[in-house]
Specification:
By secondary structure, this protein is mainly α. It has a domain of 78 residues: Orthogonal Bundle (Rna Polymerase Sigma Factor, Chain: A), CATH 1.10.1740. The protein has seven helices and no strands.
Amino acid sequence: MNFEDIFDKYFDRVYRFINIKTLNHMDAEDIALLVFEKVNNKLDTYSPDKSSFDTWLFSIVKNEIASFYRKKQVTTISIDTASLLVDTGQSPEEIVQMSDERSDLRLALASLNDRERTIIAYRYGADMKNTDIGDLLGISSENVGVVLFRALKKLKAELT
């Protein structure tokens, strides 16, 4: 698979994962671009004998998130309201409702611990299977399922 195909196939999944993990869409964009720069530079080092492509890619993602924040060492504030400036064809009431729901979800996600948010991000942001998540985190797929179940239960309680 060439880099363009990889980028087209995986960018949305990588971005969604990073966005859930960081809770900051601007940082998520920056980190996703750094990830694909590294993928482009290291593609020849990937070996299907060692791991699946998803596991290899999301190992890079995990490392780039850590590296990004290690270098940054600055607290940032996400300006999610900038998305309201885009004409979506929705009424102002619908836009406000959607913004409130997104804000509530971000707050609920922020209430989870890092491990829970990471597993939620892998499962729903990156659309990964429990076995692949377990491989990345060094835990069993059953443990992933238990953490996921409990995290979803917490999210539901926060949102109701």
